[in-house]
Write a structure and sequence with these properties.
Radius of gyration of chain B: 30 Å
Strand order of the largest sheet of chain B: 1-2-4-5-3
Number of helices of chain B: 17
Largest sheet of chain A: none
Largest interface: A-B, 35 and 26 residues
Shape of chain A: globular
Strand content of chain A: under 5%
CATH class of chain A: Mainly Alpha
Number of helices of chain A: 16
Shape of chain B: elongated
Largest sheet of chain B: 5 strands, antiparallel
CATH topology of chain A: Amino acid/polyamine transporter I
CATH superfamily of chain A: Amino acid/polyamine transporter I
Distance between the termini of chain A: 33 Å
Number of strands of chain B: 12
Number of strands of chain A: 0
Oligomer: heterodimer
Structural class of chain A: mainly alpha
Number of domains of chain B: 4
Order of helices and strands of chain B: HHEEHHEHEEHEEHHEHEEHHHHHHHEEH
């Protein structure tokens, strides 16, 4: 397997689209329930945890870009083989493929659950899983440009959903945020950890990197994308904390939709129906990106057609959807992915980038000493 | 295998073979090739025992110019001997060429040329005295305008080129000859401004047209369908227009146009999705009016797709969304309706489509009566009979109106057609169904290309400078560049600084 990937000129995307890519992959089903989960860990200082979580992901993202820049135009599949060797590298590649497939699965299942809870309680899971998987496959078949396009339109098309939150803000009580920093560090750190599931997705940059046209600007735009997400998440958490009463938030599984519930227009009530429907556009780039990156592995590791890989993974996820029947199973899987994601999106890239830096430094020294002697 | 090879060789020889050098044999040869063509005429003259023959298809030539410019000079010419050379000197006709290949002669006869052959000469003369039936210039019918030039193309290629040339007096305007079709070869022109249009776009057009292996292409709209990037989709990817000023505006923005003989419309590309919602009127109006109208059009198209499915979704699954005051009136009007909302909506959409189609097929005078019969009688009666609700009638009428605002008739039709599957999906999954089809259309549009360029161009890949040309409309002083979407070679329309200059107070 070649470490570097040189796609055709026509497949490249502009660097500033990385901003949308990062933001779209981070924003997904996670944000809907994020305020509650973090609130349970860090109480009314939850927004600080979310903000710190965003900072943490910025650091990881910076390390990632640093690592990617050491190569000419490589993706994670290539880098792992280059650093860890053929066997261990490919084993990690397969692990990463599995992780991304499971992430895809969890996003899909979480959305289906939301739909079933909020709109159609009687709708069988497969009836909504099949169309969504097919739609994802249709998008992924179009290649990276289409997927980044979906991410772009997802961010542009759902910006207005944020402004709808102005309505619940009018009923909010800012005093809920006080006293500031009342929670001890342990709980805040725990909150940061809980935030990680929602912030996951930026690790996909390691697969997008070869397809970016101006590689020098990747750092800037990826940081901007992450900053936007961080501000957005912190804001939403703050609104949730101030809007709900002290124990109300802990008992509301999807606080964002609950807040949409009170939005009232003269010809439209119960805004959450629109919110839930529109969330499909929010999760679309998530599913597309994960499926694309995972199926890319088929091409990179065993040189299959990526097209076949897409269908194999799609089928796999569809079969998997039958195994989840109850809410507690969903919770278990989501927690599992949260742990997996914390390792593979936050810890592992840092580890790998340190390895890469050490390796490159070592090689350079070796080369320098060879030149001297 | 050997046999086939020789056979090929023979047919090749046949192609290259000059016709018989004897006048009588030539006649029978032509007769044999053109077949039982009753309008193939011969006129033979004799002088000093030397024969001269004029061959022509009487339906295609202009009788008076034939008599005046071909027969008369030959008959009156008494001094010189009849040879091809001498005849070529005396014929007062601009388009003259020499030929002796049977195939070439036949092809030219079909184009409306006359063939003059002197007995025993190695070559004959092809003289163009053809005429075609043409209508005079008229107002545009399918793309009607309130404001701006109203002249439209006709079926004559030469006439159409004349209009474009006189609209666009640019020495760099290129008109390349192309032939369209394999069996019936229709002449056409590839039109572009040489130092503006991107070479790739021109090449794509040229290559796609020349590689077409199709027997007969009746019109540019058909040609457009054949050279499109994706023929499965419902969305048109190449614009077809009958307005010459639309073509010239596009040419100056770096697009490439194709015209064909006997076709009253031109096609041009690359035309991204949003360009189908641009009217030439936007350019002729003041910029703020143009901006308003363009926004109006895009919003109305959006509503046209969304309104009926939203009605179906809300009334089938999400009653909670409607505020109670509105719910009462909705409930009252729907109380008599025995169908589920999906069926009701599909039925009424079907009626509207019927009205439109019937109105389009009927003569204009009856067409207006159609509108009254359909709109008032059916609409009113349907509500009173408890067939549909009042509110649905309003919604359907609104969405029909919205779809008609598209300046491109084909795009309007596409918009009306995609509504049906969305209505069905809304009936199946409510708001989720609508959002699903919305996502699908978005991905589908992202996947499409027009002449190899992305279909959603100024929006994705994002070119904010081009938004002033497509989605929005900027004042003229800010549009100092040509749209990047078409990758123009010469990008500058006027110096940027000149547009931005501002006078100081009292200067």
């Amino acid at each position: 397997m070649k470490v570097n990937l040189y796609p055709k000129e026509g497949l490249l995307v502009n660097a500033f689209l990385v901003l949308f890519f990062i933001n779209a992959t981070q924003t997904g089903v996670g944000i809907v329930g994020l305020p509650r989960i973090v609130y349970m860990a860090a109480k009314h200082d939850a927004w600080i945890s979310v903000f710190l979580g965003g900072g943490l992901s910025a650091v990881v993202l910076a390390m990632m870009v640093l690592m990617l820049k050491k190569y000419d135009s490589a993706d994670l599949y290539g880098i792992q083989v280059d650093v860890l060797g053929k066997w261990l590298g490919n084993a990690m590649n397969i692990f990463y493929m599995l992780y991304m497939t499971i992430s895809f699965f969890v996003i899909l299942m979480n959305y289906i659950e939301i739909v079933q809870v909020w709109i159609f309680p009687d709708l069988p899971t497969w009836q909504i899983a099949i169309p969504l998987i097919l739609l994802t496959i249709y998008a992924v078949n179009g290649g990276i440009r289409i997927i980044v396009g979906v991410a772009f339109f997802s961010v542009i098309g759902t910006i207005w959903l944020i402004f709808v939150l102005i309505v619940p803000m009018q009923y909010a009580d800012p005093k809920n945020l006080l006293p500031l920093l009342n929670t001890d560090l342990k709980h805040i750190v725990n909150g940061v950890y809980k935030t990680s599931l929602s912030l996951m997705g930026f690790e996909l940059l390691m697969f997008l990197y070869p397809y970016v046209k101006e590689k020098k600007k990747v750092f800037l735009y990826s940081q901007l994308g992450n900053l936007y997400t961080t501000i957005l998440f912190t804001l939403i958490t703050m609104i949730s904390i101030t809007f709900f009463a002290e124990n109300g938030l802990a008992r509301t599984i999807w606080p964002v939709f609950s807040m949409y519930k009170i939005v009232r227009l003269p010809n439209l009530e119960r805004f959450e129906f629109i919110g839930v429907s529109f969330w499909m556009l929010v999760i679309m780039p998530n599913m597309c990106c994960y499926l694309w990156a995972a199926s890319k592995g088929f091409k990179r590791i065993i040189n299959w057609k990526q097209n076949h890989g897409i269908w194999v993974l799609g089928l796999l996820v569809f079969v998997g959807s039958f195994f989840i029947k109850a809410r507690y199973q969903m919770n278990e899987v989501t927690d599992f992915v949260a742990k997996l994601g914390f390792f593979s999106a936050f810890c592992y890239p840092v580890l790998l980038s340190v390895l890469v830096l050490v390796k490159k430094w070592f090689l350079r020294r070796k080369k320098a000493s060879a030149e001297v002697s | 295998m050997f046999k086939r090879k020789t056979g090929n060789k023979q047919s090749e020889d046949k192609d290259k073979k000059p016709h018989s050098l004897n006048v009588d044999d030539l006649k029978s040869e032509l007769q044999a090739v053109i077949g039982d063509c009753s309008d193939l005429n011969f006129r033979t003259l004799k002088k000093n025992g030397k024969k001269i023959v004029f061959c022509f298809l009487s339906s295609l030539i202009d009788k008076t110019s034939f008599d005046e410019f071909l027969l008369l000079p030959v008959q009156q010419n008494t001094q010189e001997e009849w040879t091809t050379e001498s005849l070529a000197q005396i014929l007062p006709i601009a388009e003259i060429s020499a030929a002796n290949q049977l195939k070439e002669v036949v092809a030219s006869l079909i184009e409306g040329k006359a063939y003059i052959y002197v007995d025993g000469e190695p070559f004959g003369i092809l003289a163009n005295v053809g005429t075609t039936v043409e209508r005079s210039l008229e107002k545009a019918e399918t793309e009607s305008l309130v404001y701006g030039p109203k002249i439209s193309f006709t079926e004559s290629l030469i006439g159409n080129l004349n209009i474009i040339r006189s609209n666009l007096k640019d020495p760099q305007l290129c008109m390349e000859d192309i032939t369209v079709g394999k069996r019936v070869k229709t002449p056409g022109k590839l039109v572009y401004v040489k130092d503006i249009a991107d070479e790739d776009n021109v090449n794509t057009f040229r290559q796609r047209i020349s590689e077409l292996d199709y027997d007969y292409i009746p019109d540019t709209t058909v040609l457009g369908q054949l050279i499109e990037d994706n023929s499965w989709t419902i969305f048109p990817q190449i614009m077809s227009t009958e307005l010459p000023d639309r073509v010239t505006l596009s040419l100056m923005r770096g697009r490439v146009a194709v015209l064909m003989d006997r076709s009253p419309s031109a096609i041009y590309g690359p035309t991204p999705f949003l360009s189908f919602f641009e009217s030439t009127e936007d350019v002729y109006m003041r910029w703020n009016m143009g901006f308003f109208l363009r926004m109006l059009r895009i919003i109305s198209i959006f509503l046209s797709v969304l309104l009926t499915p939203a009605y179906v979704a809300v009334l089938t699954y999400h009653y909670e969304i409607i505020p109670s005051a509105l719910l009462i009136s909705l409930g009252q009007s729907r109380a008599n309706v025995p169908f589920p909302p999906v069926l009701e909506a599909l039925l009424l959409e079907f009626v509207i489509e019927l009205l439109r189609e019937a109105g389009a097929r009927l003569p204009t005078k009856v067409g207006q009566t159609m509108g009254i019969v359909g709109g008032i009688v059916i609409g009113q009666a349907a509500v009173q009979a408890g067939f549909t609700s009042n509110i649905l009638i309003i919604i359907i009428a609104l969405s029909a109106l919205g779809s008609f605002t598209s300046p491109s008739y084909i795009m309007g039709t596409a918009i009306r057609m995609i509504r049906f599957p969305i209505i069905v999906l809304a009936g199946l999954w409510g708001g989720i169904g609508i959002m699903y089809s919305f996502c699908f259309i978005l991905i589908h549009l992202l996947k499409l290309t027009t002449i190899g360029r992305p279909y959603l161009m100024p929006v994705y890949p994002f070119r904010w400078k081009d938004l002033g040309y497509s989605l929005l409309k900027f004042p003229a002083q800010f549009l100092s560049y040509r749209p990047l979407t078409n990758r123009p070679v010469d990008n500058e329309r006027f110096p940027k600084q000149k547009g931005r200059e501002k006078k100081d107070v009292d200067e």
